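Recap from last week: sequence in, structure out.
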Amino acid sequence: MKTRLNLTIEKELMHKVKAYAKDNNTSVSNLVEAYFKNILSKKSPNMLELIKSLPKPDIDDNLDLKKAFYEENASKYGF
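Predicted structure tokens:
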């Protein structure tokens, strides 16, 4: 079921929006509805999902990361 919504925006912006809607064979109402659906469908990812989505580095599985860290820093800082 659809319902009416009154919006107040700048006159110049309204002219541009109507022209955009006409150029895209849609209505201002459909543009507003699509925008609201878009922003409401976006959920912010939690930190774990974000980390899992990052590209994985190419690291040798047999590499001892702790040892490599100390070896690299020994040359830099004289450990």
